[in-house]
Write a structure and sequence with these properties.
The chain is α/β, with parallel strands linked by helices. The chain starts with a helix and ends with a helix. The protein has a single domain, classed as ATP synthase, F1 complex, gamma subunit (Pyruvate Kinase, Chain: A, domain 1), CATH 3.40.1380.10. The strands form 2 sheets. The chain has a 5-stranded mixed sheet, sandwiched between helices. The protein has a two-stranded antiparallel ribbon with strand order 2-3. It has helices at 4-59, 91-104, 137-146, 163-178, 210-220, 242-317; strands at residues 75-81, 112-114, 117-119, 129-135, 150-153, 184-192, 198-206.
Length: 318
């Protein structure tokens, strides 16, 4: 039979744990509200930015501009967005599964898109090289365990960064691609759907893909048709010249893609952490209730036993 003192000690310990998880839930709820407000505020701009980027990539495919250049994929740069800490449910595990799947089978990574067509180079998958840029320490630790190369890491960008904080990331990505060190750049992030639901995504950053941009816009909500992405481009009038304009506008729009992915991941992280702490609090309360019931039952049994012994002793004396 369990000791009443041990049960009381366990109940006290579990109640203290519930207080901690409840406090963490409240902190995460406050952070989640700020994170969701930030990502909702940026979505309208992201719609317009990605629409422009998709239309420009389609309208100027004939121009030999570096960020539009399609080449056989032999080396891939993967940008990974995770958290610095745990206790956030399946947020990191979903991203880690996505990364592991791509590392173990990079067949989809080497595919490039031109319009509606897919270009799948004939290359031994074992020869495909994947390097990483990590945002968040959890992703950094995973890549280190895999023995892959990390060309840059940014653990400080995991909570509500400003757009200026993202520029070093986008500069590295663009410079490495223009120097032809990598043939494709993808980003792995978690798309915020609701406080109860988040989904890990992998999207192509470079070369600029109209198909991927349309998917990203459609993922935000169901209003992609408002941007007329399926209508043919009639005319773009650009001054002073297409090359000069594209040279400046493409980096800014790619920067916005990265910034938006970080905000989506941040909102997903805080939502997942809040729900994880809420579930932990509820579980702690259930365990404490079960232990309290057990404590009361054992106590009642002992009281009943003592009464029976006293009654039996009195009967023997009589």
């Amino acid at each position: 039979m369990a000791n009443l003192k041990d049960i009381r000690r366990r109940i006290k310990s579990i109640n203290n744990t519930a207080k901690i998880t409840r406090a963490m839930e409240m902190v995460s709820a406050a952070k989640m509200k700020k994170a969701i407000d930030s990502v909702l505020a940026i979505r309208e701009y992201a719609h317009s930015a990605w629409s422009i980027l998709g239309n420009l990539s389609r309208a100027f495919e004939r121009y030999d501009y570096g960020l539009l250049e399609i080449r056989p994929v032999k080396k891939v740069l993967m940008v990974v967005i995770t958290s610095n800490r745990g206790l956030c449910g399946s947020f990191n595990s979903q991203t880690i599964k996505k990364i592991m799947a791509q590392v173990n089978n990079p067949g989809s990574l080497i595919v490039n898109r031109v319009g509606k067509k897919k270009i799948n180079p004939k290359i031994d998958l074992e020869k495909v090289e994947i390097d990483f840029i990590t945002i968040g320490r959890k992703g950094e630790k995973l890549v280190q365990r895999l023995g892959k190369k990390i060309i840059a890491t940014f653990p400080e960008l995991t909570y509500l960064p400003g757009i200026e904080s993202v520029r070093p990331v986008s500069k590295i990505i663009i410079d490495e691609y223009l120097e032809k060190k990598y043939d494709k750049v993808v980003i792995v992030y978690t798309d915020f759907i609701s406080a109860m639901s988040q989904e890990s995504k992998i999207r192509q950053l470079l070369p600029v893909s109209k198909i991927d941009l349309e998917k990203q816009i459609a993922d935000i909500d169901n209003l992609a048709e408002e941007y007329d992405l399926e209508k043919p481009i009639k005319e773009y009038k650009i001054e002073p010249s297409p090359r000069k304009v594209l040279k400046h506008i493409f980096p800014r729009l790619i920067e916005m893609q990265i910034y938006h992915a970080i905000l989506e991941s941040n909102a997903s992280k805080e939502s997942s952490r809040m729900m994880a702490m809420r579930n932990a609090t509820d579980s702690a309360k259930e365990i404490a209730d079960d232990l309290t019931l057990m404590h009361n039952q054992i106590r009642q049994m002992k009281i009943t036993q003592e009464i029976s012994e006293i009654s039996a002793g009195r009967a023997a004396l009589e």
